[in-house]
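Running log. JK asked me to keep both predictions on one page so they can be read side by side. First protein, sequence followed by its tokens:
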Amino acid sequence: MPGCAWCGSHLDVVGNAVGRRDTCPRCDHDLHACRQCRHFDPTVAKECKEPFAEVPSDKDQANFCEFFQLGEGGHTDEDPVRAAREATDALFRR
């Protein structure tokens, strides 16, 4: 189920029908933005898994990307290296 990348609330969106000016009803962040997209990944080049996308410099604001697909939500502004290190520390902690 689609969700907001900022607040994690579930969104009642059917068939990826998200307009450029649509916002989250709970936190009012733009929905048609890189951080809300399923292709957004801070660990890859340009932070986008779609190789043909023209990636905007501001990933938090609404854009005109033709490859946009609403993601599952959950705040994605987390450092993946730090998260992996914490998971490893927790695993091997005595």
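And the second, directly underneath as requested:
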Amino acid sequence: MSFLQDMLAKGQSLLKFSVPVNSVVGIDIGTSAIKIVQVKRDGGKIKLETYGEIGLGTYASDKSGKVVTLAPDVIGKAVADLLREANVTTKNAVLSIQSQATLIFLLELPEVKESELATLIPNEARKYIPVPLTEVSLDWYVVPKQETYQDEGSSTDPKLMRKKNEVVVVAVRNETLAQYREISDKSGIVSRGNEIEIFSAIRSVFHREITPTMVIDYGAGTTKVSIVEYGVVRAYHVINRGSAFTSESLARTMGIDFDKAEEIKKTVGLVGGANDAKTAEAITTDTAYIISEIQTILLGYERQSHKAVTKIILCGGGAMMPGFLEKVTETFGVETIYGDPFDKAEAPQFMEQVLKKAGPEFTVAMGLALKDFV
């Protein structure tokens, strides 16, 4: 039995769940904050019940917005505090797994019986995993074949005519999964399982995109970049720098405290007026590294796949910096939008603008909450 099948039996798969429930809270545990979204099924509709956020800095006796490392029991307490403050009414929860704690890769395998995958995949996966397989849990799914003109076998080369399967493989350290179990226990939730951030983000912000689309999740501690085609993650990278680095750099450069630097980053950003030109220039210099890394990822994908990325979706708090969307649009020359996860659930009309503005920061939490419903 594969890890996927075993976890399905327990309702704890990283990729799929079993029997759905009527109300679920998605819990996005980040490096600087925890975000939650609760939705419920009401007839044939999905309705937003509540959402909220809590900074983790204070739990480490540090500034709000800072990237911190906390023990599982402390994170569990923070989760419990947020659930209470946001008036969450269900204990059924799905928790995110931070992308930097995982590996995601695509295998091309011979077309074999499903029963043979449990042996074949671990043998192939060990080439990509830098630790013994006994230290990780593997999950996978076979990518459905797309019937396009490219599949009309025009080649007579026997090697090209052999049938192949593409398989998305996820590897997570057993130690990491144990920590999330402890967080669930300490926070008093009933875990519906865990999911890696990128899969949640795709669920919450994608609609009918089938051409290559880039998702940039500009978080506090890291920036996650993925390229998705037909719902399949074709490229995935974690840049070990996030928007908190910009605040820290700004604080050092200007001789101000972190809180003030955070405020400036969120209000001045990459644009600024006549009085903020130098500040905006400093922020632009810091974000240039992120832009450069994203460009390398995009060019590498396009060179290898011979396909062009046609759209970029921005998520995460860092993406909300004034001028960042315009900078990405200018650099890559493709349609660039903010993720709007709240449009997947019904909410009071008077909250529409508030939710649209908050949306990019709650992309993962909403995707987690929706996992049982879509």
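Observation for JK regarding the second prediction: Residues 251 and 261 are 5 Å apart (CA to CA).
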